[in-house]
Predict the 3D structure of the following.
Amino acid sequence: MTVLLSLAKAFLVGGLLCAVGQVLIDKTKLTPARILVLYVVAGVLLGAVGLYEPLLHWAEEGAAIPLTGFGNVLASGTRDAVDKDGLIGVLEGPLYAGAVGIMAAILCALAVSVVARPKEK
Amino acid sequence: MSVSKDEYARMMQRAAPQSPLWLDCLKAFSVGGAICCLAEGLLLTLTHCGMGYDHAKALTMITLIVLTAALTGLGVFDRIAKHAGAGTAVPITGFANAMVAPTLESKAEGFIRGAGAQMFSIAGPVIAYGCSTAAVYGLIYYCLQRWGKA
């Protein structure tokens, strides 16, 4: 039962975050690239003021997988780095926190571009 | 042929009819929800098998990125994204696709100035603004920690 509840919560929150993005795309003519930037920056800000952590706790991957979750990781990682190393953590934290996602995407992009063929237009 | 701005807008409207907002939202909601649901299922499975929570979360994200990259390489991702809109763009799948697709498409222009540079055509701004915002927050946090309580 708890498993089903967790899945439902993830579905609900993740779906709602995407639906909000769809309204932004349809209503404001924001390009998807701007939506990505907007979501990550919004996630950093929400994480900074402590609003994202409760959502993350409640919905887990429903809040972590949308790009606001990536932004929140950047904020919380920077906070941890400052706690640990002081002022140098300001420069060290952001990229360190995002490293896993960014590195995975870089390696995937290179691997795919070597192996796959670009689609005919 | 000269066309006024209004006429052009109307021509565009006819050429690319907008699907209703509620339908777009429903599609984005279901696809985005399903992606997060899949991630949650994977996270629960991994932690159930005894993996630590943080590692399981990282592995879940990596799995989604690898899956997106594979589907992008096969040309399947675009077909899903066309219908799902924000449903695939907003989750981490959108970030992964935004890195893989331009890399693949520009490999004909070479691996340095083509694939290597285009890799960051969309991810670059995301990383730059996201990390810069986080750094500003870190600086404010540092100042508050140091002088805020005094």
Notes: The helical segments of chain B are 5-15, 21-48, 53-74, 76-84, 86-89, 92-105, 111-118, 120-148. Chain B touches chain A through 77 residues (CB under 8 Å). Chain B has a mean pLDDT of 91. The radius of gyration of chain B is 21 Å.
